[in-house]
Amino acid sequence: MIARRCALAMVGIALGSAAAVADENNDLHLIPQGINEPQAPAPAATEANQRIYLEDAAVVSSLRSGLLVPFPPPAPPDWQERLFLDARKQWRLGDRLNFTISDRFNLRAESDLPIPNHENVINEFREGYLSWQPLDRTYLDLGRINLKSGVALGFNPTDFFKTRAVVEPLSVDPTVLREDRLGTLMVEGQHIWEGGAITIAFAPKLYDPTAIYNNTNLLSVDPSLDRTNANDRFLIKGNVAVSDDFAPEFLLYRQGNQTSLGTNVTESLGQSVVVYGEWAGGDRSSLIDQALRYGRLSGSLPASAPSALPEDPHRHFQNQLSVGASYTTQSRITFNLEYHFDQAAFSRRDWNNWFRIGSANAGSPGIPGELWYIRSYALDQQEPISEHSLFLRADWVDSFVPKLELIGFIDTDLYDGSSLAQVEADYYLSNSWTVGGLVVADIGRKHSDFGSLPQAASVLLKLVRYF
Amino acid sequence: MRITRIAALLALVFVATSAEAQTAQEIIAASDQVRNPSQPFRSTDTLTEYIGGKPRDQDVLAVYSKIDPATQQYRNLIRYVAPPRDQGKMVLLDGKSLWFYDPNSKASVRISPQQRLIGQASIADVLTVNFAIDYTGKLLGDETIQDPQHQNRQCWHLDMKAANEQTSYNRVEYWVEHGTNYPIKAKFYSDSGRLLKILYYDGFEQRLGRVRPSKAIIVDAVDTSLATIVTFGDVTPQEIPEAWFQRDYLPRLQAQ
């Protein structure tokens, strides 16, 4: 009897094991057919040194009427059509010498531009520089360079070379704005060693400050060095590995007679979370004072014009901060949540003054223009307009169907709850073709940051061919 | 007949003895040596995505790998060669530190291993990793399973649990062939125990001093219509200075 039970047990184990193995072998059915067929040869690794694409984008916008503070002419266009060739390429001139160029050539038409017009052709010469490695991992770069700093997504206080560098963007996603901005003519030295890196850069002043451009007076094929080289600028930054996974970066920046300090820190928490913080501080005047001073200096505002808003010409130590975290879900959606603080930007009192004075003087030709100039200055400088804001971004690769990437963000002014929101969808038709679209909206009451803007919403459709 | 019985008994004893002689961790380590060359090397990995059994897109990555003497784990540097929209992007993995660099924005962003950067495959799938460092194994038994070419392979069946926070998966089932220590199959599970991926190793051939797999077949177990074939091509020894694993080096890495 015992022997029979043992035999049954053995048979049971054998059958169980066989069943498990059969289950394992069932997985083979999930393997696609044709895996043994020869594959197309991989492209040469040197192709990684370039990205070239042609994009056509059409934008339709809806404008608000009845603004509390009238927007000075020209009004934003209600449609745009843009065709551009975008190229980034690096050539190896020798063992230790490279040349890099990055450029975007635009053909554009807009509701507020006559055709033909020199404004129909805009070339953005982003970068062009030589890079020499005189010693191992010691580099000397000379030319127009896009020097980027910062670890946050929505606002980078330590990205000191961002000012005035963005030209007519198609998307307001901060991560996209960085892709299409002008570099600064500079000399840069860098040394990288096992435990860290140090970078020193100097950008000379070549031009006096020029007026802020709008979409109807952009320079056509001019390199626009006046945007990037209107001050002597000096940056030294370095990072040192304190531990295996913690290497804070410290920055010292001087522009004209103003000095700023900054730092970037990041830390990884497990498989899904990264926390980060970025701070910069220095003696600065308020955004209002900076804007009005710049307007008078560049001739955009009359030199003797009285200020519409209370000015404080004194400089104080002002802080800028961006702290946040990213979290990636099991379904591969990555969320970034950030808090942004800019001490020099509009406080609640500044906003109240802006609306009160602007609406009380809506019929006056000068005051609304001056008030809007302050806001366009903040945009041109890539600085927040409001002291406190919250930024949430989500990126979902292969969202509802494979090859569909959804990206959305919302930037909320914490004073009034108004928001800038954008949702973008890109579908990768193939390795060479992408079709996509985005919707952007300024949401809020009339008496709010984003609700007071002349543009209510816009829709963009695009087709991209990569080479 | 008696001789046959003795031979069978001896064979059983031999198998039992070798199982005792090789612990689970030793089997995993031996299998790591099959998968990964011990010297610094560069490879060109081609990832072909299949949707519903049909090839769709192809991503090509240049991967630089080197063992960190302090941890015995690999450091990896990845450069996107294709598709054209991603050309020049880079990823650095150094211990817990994972950075993504985009030459278009010139921005370095710290990312988590969970982030999917290459089609259906997560970045963890293309990294060179020593399982014996990241996982603690237990021998479940002995199984004969078929490889992707439908050849029977007599394998150790191992159950591996994450030994630190740096692992991409909480649990892995792993099949390693007796005698050769060839990795044959792996199943990757989430923290909740959900089967996420099934991976087969294939295309064993001589490279950098011994026979190693030249292909990995990754099936998405959540959506089984999705699969990725990773081909490890042009595996070449390469001197890789330690400074390459600094995030500031990413913009400086030259295509070879």
Q: Any descriptors?
A:
heterodimer; A: 467 residues; alpha+beta; Porin; 18-stranded antiparallel β-barrel; 6 helices; 15% helix; disordered N terminus; B: 256 residues; outer membrane lipoprotein receptor (LolB), chain A; 13 strands
Question: In words, what does this structure look like?
Answer:
The complex is a heterodimer of chains A (467) and B (256). By secondary structure, chain A is α+β, with helices and mostly antiparallel strands. Chain A is 15% helix and 43% strand. Chain A has six helices and 18 strands. Chain A has an 18-stranded antiparallel beta barrel. In chain A, helix 4 (287-297) crosses helix 6 (367-380). Chain B is an alpha+beta fold and 256 residues long. Chain B is globular and about 50 Å long. The model of chain B is unreliable at 6-20 (pLDDT under 50). The chains are: A alpha+beta (467), B alpha+beta (256). At the A-B interface, helix 1, strand 1, strand 6, strand 7 and strand 11 of A face strand 1, strand 2, strand 3, strand 5 and strand 6 of B.
Gap between N and C termini of chain A: 77 Å
Instruction: Kindly state the percentage of residues in helix of chain B.
Output: 10-25%
Spatial gap, N to C terminus of chain B: 63 Å
Helices and strands of chain A, in N-to-C order?
Answer: HEEEEEHEEHEEEEHEEHHEEEEE
Q: What do we call the CATH homologous superfamily of chain A? A: Porin
Question: What kind of assembly state do the chains in view correspond to?
Answer: heterodimer
Tally the beta strands of chain A: 18
The structural class of chain A is alpha+beta
Which CATH top level class of chain A fits? Mainly Beta
CATH architectural label of chain B: Clam
Largest sheet of chain B: 13 strands, antiparallel
Largest interface, C-beta within 8 A: A-B, 81 and 84 residues
